[in-house]
Design goal:
The complex is a heterodimer. Chain A has five helices and six strands. Chain A is an alpha/beta fold. In chain A, α3 (about 75-90) links the parallel β4 and β5 (about 95-100). The longest helix of chain A is centred in the middle third of the chain and has 14 residues, at about 75-90. Chain B has two domains: about 1-120, NAD(P)-binding Rossmann-like Domain (Rossmann fold); about 130-215, Alpha-Beta Plaits. The chains are: A alpha/beta, B alpha/beta.
């Protein structure tokens, strides 16, 4: 698969590494080149400096040929905007968007985005650990 | 009208000030508490400290009864999300977003924002109006954005000067509605000859704009 990941934070870098090891074609995008230090030395994919909410940057990252787009920057709104551009402007078949704020996650989920809220998931996990 | 403004920067501040003087009920939502205090000191208690993208904040300020919702922060993505939450969660009839990247104009429309305002585009339009190398100037977008009215300054060296309208290869999606010169204005017929230094007013589909430009400059 051809995967674009927006945001090279801890999650983005680790996901990129995993998908790269699985043999997928990975392009990872970040506004800050220093973030790419989190990628392993043997990373086969492409690391690109750019803003995932900018149409031109997305084109440069090859979004027109992408099968999957994942938005995992620190900013909920940036993720939401980039994911909607990928889905509605470039018609990427699978778009996944991380949204920390559970209320916002709920709204965009009902609007048809595939969303994950680490806040909700994390709280549930902790709850299960505590309560058993 | 009840108007909610997200972002209490310079644009939000002067917007609110003007709307208040016109008798509207205005509320500014601003993230920076110090900025909030400064606004309240100057305009009265019309600013609230909060995040205009958060549904909880918007519920608190009665967004469901707002007639208009305007997002003018510095960040395009924040303006998009604030307007989308207002629209989809609170059914605000009119949402307006400020944008910085001119390319976001089309994207925001596609994502359901009623109106976008781009200062970059406004300045660009003024430049186009002043610089003669830009033969095409946008005058207005007709309802729905499917058609636009443009003004064309025919360059003096253009190959179409002296030709009849029917001989010029205008794209079929463009209609030349008016020819204006020092001598006045005429509605051109297929046999009208294009006078030197004329300006044309045309109605065109946005996608035919490039072909229209090419027909006029002969490139």
């Amino acid at each position: 698969m051809n995967v674009i990941i927006m945001g090279c934070g801890r999650v983005g870098a680790q996901l990129a590494t995993m998908l790269d090891e699985d043999g997928h074609k990975v392009t990872i995008l970040d506004r800050e080149p220093y973030s790419f230090r989190k990628l392993p030395a043997n990373f086969q994919g492409k690391a690109l400096v750019g803003d995932g909410t900018d149409e031109d940057s997305l084109r440069r990252a090859g979004i027109e040929e992408a099968d999957v787009f994942v938005a995992v920057t620190q900013g909920d709104n940036r993720n939401v905007m980039a994911a909607q551009i990928a889905k509605h402007v470039f018609n990427v078949p699978k778009v996944v968007c991380r949204i920390y704020d559970p209320l916002r996650e709920e709204l965009y989920h009902t609007l048809g985005l595939e969303t994950i809220s680490p806040t909700t998931v994390g709280a549930k996990l902790l709850h299960d650990v505590i309560v058993g | 009208m009840y108007i909610i403004v997200v972002g209490g920067g310079k644009i939000g501040f002067y917007l609110a000030k003007t709307l208040l003087s016109e008798g509207h009920e205005v509320l500014i939502i601003e993230k920076d508490p110090a900025r909030c205090d400064a606004i309240c000191e100057e305009l009265g208690s019309i600013a609230m400290w909060g995040d205009g993208c958060e549904a909880r904040t918007l519920a608190e300020v009665g967004t469901e009864r707002a007639d208009m919702f305007i997002a003018v922060t510095d960040e395009d993505e924040d303006n998009l999300v604030a307007c989308q939450v207002a629209k989809h969660k609170f059914n605000v009839p009119h949402t307006i977003a400020r944008i910085n990247n001119p390319k976001n104009e089309k994207i925001f429309k596609k994502l359901g924002i009623d109106l976008t305002v781009s200062s970059t585009n406004i300045i660009l339009e003024h430049i186009q109006e002043k610089v003669p190398t830009h033969p095409l100037v946008h005058l207005l977008t007709l309802r729905g954005g499917d058609l636009e009215v443009v003004e064309i300054k025919v360059p003096p060296n253009s190959p179409i000067v002296g030709k009849r309208m029917k001989e010029i290869g205008f794209p079929s999606e463009s209609v030349v509605a008016l020819m204006v010169g020092k001598w006045g204005a005429v509605v051109p017929t297929p046999d009208t000859i294009l006078e030197p230094e004329a300006q044309l007013i045309a109605v065109t589909k946005p996608e035919a704009e490039e072909a229209l430009r090419a027909a006029i400059t002969g490139t």
